[in-house]
Amino acid sequence: MVWKPEHKTGIPIYRQIMNWMVKQIEHGHWPAEMKLPTQRKLAEQLQVNRSTVIQALEELKADGLLTGKAGSGIYVSQPGWHELIHGAIPRWKERINQSLCQANSQTIQLINDFEKRTDILRLGTGELGPELIPSGALQGTMRQVAITERDFGYSEPKGHIQLRNALTDYLKTRGIQANAEQIVIVSGGIQALQLLSIGLNSGQLNMFHNSPSYLHSIPSITSTSITSLDKMKLKSNQSFYYVIPTLNNPTGISLSAVERQELIKACAAVNLPIIEDDVYRDLAFEKPPLPLKSLDHNGQVIYIGSLSKTVSPGLRIGWMVGPESVMDHLADLKMQLDYGSSAIPQLVAAEWFRSGLYEQHVSALKKQLKQRADFTEALLNTYFSDFAEWQSPQGGFYIWLRIKQPIVTKALFQLLLKQNILINPGYLYAPNDYEHIRISYSYCSREELARGLKKLAQELKARLGGINNEH
Amino acid sequence: MVWKPEHKTGIPIYRQIMNWMVKQIEHGHWPAEMKLPTQRKLAEQLQVNRSTVIQALEELKADGLLTGKAGSGIYVSQPGWHELIHGAIPRWKERINQSLCQANSQTIQLINDFEKRTDILRLGTGELGPELIPSGALQGTMRQVAITERDFGYSEPKGHIQLRNALTDYLKTRGIQANAEQIVIVSGGIQALQLLSIGLNSGQLNMFHNSPSYLHSIPSITSTSITSLDKMKLKSNQSFYYVIPTLNNPTGISLSAVERQELIKACAAVNLPIIEDDVYRDLAFEKPPLPLKSLDHNGQVIYIGSLSKTVSPGLRIGWMVGPESVMDHLADLKMQLDYGSSAIPQLVAAEWFRSGLYEQHVSALKKQLKQRADFTEALLNTYFSDFAEWQSPQGGFYIWLRIKQPIVTKALFQLLLKQNILINPGYLYAPNDYEHIRISYSYCSREELARGLKKLAQELKARLGGINNEH
Description:
Chains A, B: In the C-terminal section; belongs to the class-I pyridoxal-phosphate-dependent aminotransferase family. Chains A, B: This is GntR family transcriptional regulator of abcA and norABC. Chains A, B: Pfam families: Aminotran_1_2, GntR. Chains A, B: Residues 11-79 form the HTH gntR-type domain. Two copies of one chain form a homodimer. Chain A is an alpha/beta fold. Chain A folds into three domains: 13-98, Winged helix-like DNA-binding domain superfamily/Winged helix DNA-binding domain (Arc Repressor Mutant, subunit A); 106-126 and 360-470, Alpha-Beta Complex (Aspartate Aminotransferase, domain 1), CATH 3.90.1150.10; 146-356, Aspartate Aminotransferase, domain 2, CATH 3.40.640.10. Chain A has helices at residues 13-26, 39-46, 50-63, 81-87, 92-98, 106-114, 135-144, 161-173, 189-199, 257-269, 324-338, 343-355, 357-383, 410-418, 446-470, and strands spanning 66-69, 73-76, 121-122, 183-186, 206-209, 223-225, 239-243, 274-277, 301-306, 318-321, 388-389, 398-403, 421-422, 424-425, 436-440. A seven-stranded mixed beta sheet of chain A has the order 4-10-9-8-7-5-6, sandwiched between helices.
C-alpha cells in the first residue's frame, strides 16, 4: 500500500503508475466497480503531481480498464479486467495489434524517438547536421518568395506548376527529359515509395532489391532481397525492382554505366519495372554515371528525387518522374491521402532551382562532405582499423563499417543508447546482419564524431574481448 | 493518310495523335517492327510542334505499343498490339486497373483538374476564396518566425512540439483536455482519416456515417450510411462512427448538445469508437455546443481539427487528438508514410495560435462569411425559390440546395463545366442523390456568385422545363 513510483528508472512516472494500477486490478485488489480514490488523494499518496495521476488515469480509461462517470468519479470497469481486454470499449490495443500496418521495428522507433533529444550523439543519422543545413539561405528565400492567395489554397494534384517546371529544367541537366505532366511532387522519397507500393498492385506487391537495402527498414513495404537478376522472374506483375544506383543506402556503392545498362536489360527481359531512388546523386564527389531513367526508352523506370538529403528534410519536398498515365493515377491517389503537399516549401524549392541557389549550395556542400569523410576515415584508421574494415566513401553520408565479428546486436544498440550514442545497426538493412554499422559523417560535428567514434570503438573492443574470453 | 488533329475539341492534341497511332497499329496499317517516320516528319505531316509528337510517342512507349531503339528510331513493338496489352513491359495500365486503390470518381477528378483553371466559376468549392485567405498576415508570419537548423531537419513523429503545445492551450478553450503526447500533427484532416482507416483495422474496416456525408466522396475509405444508431452493432471491431457534429459537410447541420450526449451513449453501447471531424467548428456564427471529445470519459473519441477551412488549405496543417497509445501507433505509421509534416507550416501555425492571430482572424472571418451567406441567400431567393429549397446556414461555407426534381445528374455537371461553371453535385455525398447541389459561398467573389448562380438557375430551369415538357 506504500508503493511509490521511482525516479531515474527511465520509465516515465505515469507509466509506472499505470503498471501499478493494472496490477491492482489484475490481482483482484481493486475489484470491478470499485471507486478509485480522488485524483488529489492519489497524488498525495504517490507523491506526484496531480497532472501525472490524471495522465495515468486517462490512459487506463482509454484502454477500457477504468471508467469515468461524469460528476461521480472513476471506477474499475464493470466486466473485469480479463473480459475487458477482449471486449472493451474501444479496444484500442486489440485494434492496434490486429492492424494490417506493421509498426516500425523497435530499433527504428527508438531511433525516431531519441533523435529529438539534444544530448544524443547521432553517429548513424542519415541527414545533414545543423552545420550543413543552409538555414540562413532558406530563411532568406522564405522572406522573399512571392506567395499568392491562390497558393495558400489547395494544391494541384501533381503539385505546384512552378516547382514542376523548375524540375523539368533541373532533370534535363541530369540527362532526363520530362515535362511537367510526367512529374508528381511528393512529401519526400518515402511518400513516393508508398504511393508506388499501394497504387500499382492488387495486394501481392513485392519489391526486389539488392542486399543490404534501405527498403528493408520500412516494414510497411514488403521487400525481398535477391542476389542474382535471374531470380526476378517471379510474380513480375506485382513487383518492382528497387535500386539506389548512385551511392546506395547503406553501402555507399554506385553502379557503373555498364552495370546500369545491364540492369535495365535484365529487368526488361522479365517485364519488371524499376524504381530508381536517386536522392543521393547530387552528393557524389565525382560526377556519377547518368541515371537509369536517362537510358529508359520504354517508360520502364520510375525515378525518385528529393531535397531531403541535399538541402533540408524539414521541407518535405521530393518528386516522382514517370509515364504520364502512371503519374495521373498516383497524383489522384495522393489527393486522397493528403490533398497535396504544402505550397510554402514547394515555392521555396522552386525558387532554389530557378535562382541557381540549389546548384551553388550542393557544390559547396559536396566539398564540406568530402572534408568530413576524410576526417572520419582518419578517425576510423586510428580507432577501428584492427577489428573493422570499410571502403572510402565516394560521396553522400555513409561509411558501411564491417566489424570482423557479428557483435552488432540489439543488445549492443541499447547498451550504446544508455550511453547516449545512437547507431544505425546493420540488421536494419539486411536480416541477421550483425556485422555492420552505418556510420554517417553528415550529422555530427567533428568534435562529436571524434568523441562518439572513440567511445564506440571502446565498446566494440570490449565486446570483442568478451567474446574472445569466452572461447 | 491526311489525318490531322483538330483544335478546339477539348481533347489535347497529343492525345488525339496517340488515339490515331493506336488505330493505325490496331488495324494493321502499322505492322509490328515497322519503323515510324522521324519526329520531324511526323510533326510536319500532322502540322503540330515536334514536342507534341514527342509527347504522344513517349506515352505510347510507356504503354508498350512503341519501342525506342537507341540511335535508330522508334518502332512498332514486336509482339503486336493485342499481345502487348496483355503482356507488355511494364504493363502500367494493367497495374493501374488492378490496383487496390480506387481512383477518385470522375466527377472528383474533373473538379480537382478544373480547380486549377482561373476562368472557372467554382460554386461548390469547399475552401476560402482568395479574398478571405489571410495571405498578407501569413506572409508576415513567415518573415518573422524563427526557424532553427534543427527545424529544417526531420520532424518528431508526432509533429513539432511548439505546435502541439500551442494546440494543448487552444483545445482547452474548446473544452478538450489533451497533453502534447495525445496530439499528432497531420497534413490536413484527410490524412488523419487515412491514418485511422489503415492504422486501426485488420482489413475489413467500415466507417458508419449519417447520409449525406463528405466521407462518401473519398473512394479509398469504405463507408456505409446508417439511418438509425441501432444498426451500428455490426462488425464493430472493424468499424468507426464518423461524424461532423458541427456544420456537417455537405448539409451544414449541427447536432444539439443532447444529440451529442445520445450519440456518445449509443456508440458506447455497441463498442463503437467515434471519429469526430470538427474542422468547421470555429466558423459557426453562434457558439456551438461543446465537442463530443469534451464529453468523452473513456477514450472513445478521436478528434480531428485543421487549419484548412479556417486559415489556409495550402499550409496542410491538421491534428488528431486521442489516447496516447493510439497516437503513438498512428505517429509511427505517419513516419512510414511521409516522415512527418513540413516544419515551416507547422511553425507558422504555432505562431498563429501563440500570438492570438488565429483567434483574431477567425473572429473577423466569421463576420465576412455571415455577410456572404446573407448575400447568397438573397440570390437564392431571387433565382431559385420557385423550384428549390434550403436552410439558412448557421456557419461554415455551405448551403445544401435541394432542387425539387432529380435533375442534378452527371450530364448536368458536365454541361455546366462546358460553360465554365463547377458545381459539387449531391451524388458525391450520397448514392443516387440527384436532387442536391452543395453551394459554397466561401470561394467565389460576390460578383462571381451573382453571375454564377443566375446562370445555374437558368440551366436548372431549362432542364425542369424539359422534363415538364416530356410529361
